[in-house]
Structures are given as structure tokens and as C-alpha cells.
């Protein structure tokens, strides 16, 4: 299989994309990244990129928040991704990882001003990251979510994902599927790489932006869909763990996680361990939309079509 990546303004095969050992980002996790899905539709023989412009907006905000130089090719991210998919001729769903990192060859500087940055994009075939069909078991992590007063989680900085890795490792080691972070002051924050929602008395609730979360693009999508399609409002506020444990339904959202039902948190089963009705409805709607099967929400998609074996961008 071809495996092209985008690196230093060029498309090269992955075995040619190396960084120097003195690269600043390798030492200090100085950078930020995104995660975008390309959904393959075998009927239309197209790849649908989901909310790619919103991902670009978030990446640009990350550069601002962290005070890092924005590489000039970042502006062309959607076009570069289309070209990259074309070079790799994927006919499966893919996960696309754009990363901007401090590529300056120095590890003796902490002043981030005027350090050069590089955009790289790599891809991997991916159907589902979590068990969307049967749901997942969460473990309340003994690691707390990195506070935004130390590093802003909403910038999606590379270095902060050590926090994710520690929590995820702990959860997996103890037989769970994923970790649930609390904030430093004990409120519910998010999964290790997902936002969390719960349903109680026909109202959806999700931790607010002051709960040290990443403002997820899937989170925003779910809030909009629940209101427009199911007449369910979402309240964004501080959430106590005890509320989550007594919820009627709980689910995770994320580009990787999509909409994943939560059937257990620590020892407590949610909805008797059954996947809830609302979660099922939202999931069905979401999968239709991302695969280009719902015309109303085509505004969120960039269609990359195949023509005689070649793929090209439509519209
Ligand atoms: N929180 C964290 C920490 C994440 O890494 C992710 C994945 N990007 C999310 C939430 C979900 O965000 P999105 O829906 O934009 O993928």
C-alpha cells in the first residue's frame, strides 16, 4: 500500500519523513494537532471529510493560544488533505492527523517567540476507535485533567497528551476501555480523548468550557443535532460525578470516538448496562451524516470522489 505523508511542504513516503534529534518539539512537546475523519462511502465511491474547515479554525486558534508561529501552508490544509488522499488512493475510512510542531533545532530555548514551526500530515485507515456497537466501560482516573491554568487543553497541545496517555494506560491496565478525567477540583471533565454527555429527565448535560475540556467539534455537532432533530436542549455546566453515575444514559463524543455509548463507570452500570434510546438515535443520525447519506447536513462535508480510479474534490 502507498503511504504518503505531507512533510516540509512536500508529499513524501512515510519512510522519508524524519525529524532531527534536536527538534524542539521532540524535547518539550511544543506543538499542537488535529484529528479529522475521512469516511468512505462504497456506494458513491467517495470519501467524505467531516467539518474540515472547523478543524482548520481550531488549529489556527491553537497557534494563537500557544503563541506559536503559524506555518503558511496551514491555510491550505483542506486542499493538501485532498491531494494526500489522492496520492494514497484510500478506499476505506481514514483518520487524518495534521500536526504543527516547533521544528527549530534547539533545546536550549524556552522562549517560544520566533521559533520555526512545520506542518505535517499523516493518515491511517480507521473504522472505529472505540466500541461504538457495544459501548465502553470507563474508569474514573486517579490522574486529574491538566488544568487550563497550567496548559490550555483547548489548544490541543501535543505535550498535554502525556496526561491522556497516563490516564488511558491506567484504565486499560485495570481492565477498563477508557479513562474519565475529573478536573483539579473534582468535577467531571472529559474522557482521555473524548467529550462526555449524559441524559437525565430528557435533558442532555455536558461539562462546560471551564471544566478544562477540549471544545470538541463532535460535541458541538451533537448539541446542534440533539436540538434540531430531536428537540433536546443541552445544558453546559459543571457536572458532579454523582450525577453522571445516576444518569439515564451516558455517551462519549470525538472524531475518533464518534458517538460511543458508556455502559459502565467504575463498578456502576449505566442504564443497567444497556445502550440508551437517545444514544442509539444520535449515533444513527451521526453515521448517516458523516457518510454523506443525509442531504441536510452535507454543508459539513467535503466530498472527494473517485473517477476512473482517481479521486478528486467535488463542489
Ligand atoms: N477531548 C480531547 C482531550 C480530545 O483529544 C478529543 C479528540 N480530538 C476530544 C475531546 C473530542 O474532540 P473532537 O470532537 O473535536 O474530535
UniProtKB/TrEMBL annotation:
Keywords per UniProt: Amino-acid biosynthesis, Aminotransferase, Branched-chain amino acid biosynthesis, Pyridoxal phosphate, Transferase
UniProt enzyme class: transferase
Pfam family, one: Aminotran_4
InterPro entries in UniProt: Aminotrans_IV, Aminotrans_IV_CS, Aminotransferase-like, B_amino_transI, BCAT-like_C, BCAT-like_N, Class-IV_PLP-Dep_Aminotrnsfr
Chemical reaction(s) catalysed: L-valine + 2-oxoglutarate = 3-methyl-2-oxobutanoate + L-glutamate; L-leucine + 2-oxoglutarate = 4-methyl-2-oxopentanoate + L-glutamate; L-isoleucine + 2-oxoglutarate = (S)-3-methyl-2-oxopentanoate + L-glutamate
Keyword RNA-binding: no
Pathway of action: Amino-acid biosynthesis; L-leucine biosynthesis; L-leucine from 3-methyl-2-oxobutanoate: step 4/4; Amino-acid biosynthesis; L-valine biosynthesis; L-valine from pyruvate: step 4/4; Amino-acid biosynthesis; L-isoleucine biosynthesis; L-isoleucine from 2-oxobutanoate: step 4/4
Domain of life (superkingdom): Bacteria
Named cofactor requirement(s): pyridoxal 5'-phosphate
BP term (GO), one: isoleucine biosynthetic process
EC number: 2.6.1.42
Sample GO molecular function, one term: L-isoleucine-2-oxoglutarate transaminase activity
Cited PANTHER family: AMINO-ACID AMINOTRANSFERASE (PTHR42743), BRANCHED-CHAIN-AMINO-ACID AMINOTRANSFERASE-RELATED (PTHR42743:SF4)
Family as reported in the entry's similarity comment: Belongs to the class-IV pyridoxal-phosphate-dependent aminotransferase family.
NCBIfam families found in the cross-reference section: ilvE_I, PRK06606.1
Functional note: Acts on leucine, isoleucine and valine.
Identification of the protein by name: Branched-chain-amino-acid aminotransferase
Species of the source: Candidatus Woesebacteria bacterium GW2011_GWA2_33_28
Amino acid at each position: 500500500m502507498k503511504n504518503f505523508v505531507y512533510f516540509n511542504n512536500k508529499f513524501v513516503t512515510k519512510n522519508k519523513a524524519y525529524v532531527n534529534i534536536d527538534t524542539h518539539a521532540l524535547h518539550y512537546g511544543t506543538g499542537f494537532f488535529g484529528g479529522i475523519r475521512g469516511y468512505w462511502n462504497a456506494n458513491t465511491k467517495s470519501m467524505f471529510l467531516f467539518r474540515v474547515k472547523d478543524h482548520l479554525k481550531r488549529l489556527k486558534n491553537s497557534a494563537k493560544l500557544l503563541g506559536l508561529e503559524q506555518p503558511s501552508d496551514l491555510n491550505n490544509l483542506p486542499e493538501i488533505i485532498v491531494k494526500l488522499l489522492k496520492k494514497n488512493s484510500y478506499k476505506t475510512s481514514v483518520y487524518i492527523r495534521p500536526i504543527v510542531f516547533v521544528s527549530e533545532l534547539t533545546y536550549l530555548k524556552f522562549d517560544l517567540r520566533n521559533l520555526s514551526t512545520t506542518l505535517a500530515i499523516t493518515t491511517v485507515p480507521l473504522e472505529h476507535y472505540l466500541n461504538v456497537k457495544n459501548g465502553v466501560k470507563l474508569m474514573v482516573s486517579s490522574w486529574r485533567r491538566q488544568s487550563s491554568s497550567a496548559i490550555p487543553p483547548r489548544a490541543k497541545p501535543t505535550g498535554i497528551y502525556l496526561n491522556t496517555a497516563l490516564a488511558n494506560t491506567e484504565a486499560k491496565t485495570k481492565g477498563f476501555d477508557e479513562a474519565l478525567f475529573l478536573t483539579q477540583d473534582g468535577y467531571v471533565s472529559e474522557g482521555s480523548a473524548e467529550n462526555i454527555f449524559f441524559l437525565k429527565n430528557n435533558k442532555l448535560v455536558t461539562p462546560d468550557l471551564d471544566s478544562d475540556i477540549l471544545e470538541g467539534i463532535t460535541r458541538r455537532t451533537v448539541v446542534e443535532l440533539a436540538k434540531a432533530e430531536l428537540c433536546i436542549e443541552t445544558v453546559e455546566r459543571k457536572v458532579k460525578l454523582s450525577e453522571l453515575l445516576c444518569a439515564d444514559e451516558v455517551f462519549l463524543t470525538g472524531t475518533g470516538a464518534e458517538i460511543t455509548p458508556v455502559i459502565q463507570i467504575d463498578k456502576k452500570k449505566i442504564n443497567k448496562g444497556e445502550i440508551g434510546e437517545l444514544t442509539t438515535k444520535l449515533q444513527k443520525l451521526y453515521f448517516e451524516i458523516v457518510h454523506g447519506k443525509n442531504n441536510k447536513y452535507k454543508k459539513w462535508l467535503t466530498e472527494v470522489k473517485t473517477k476512473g480510479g482517481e479521486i478528486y474534490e467535488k463542489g
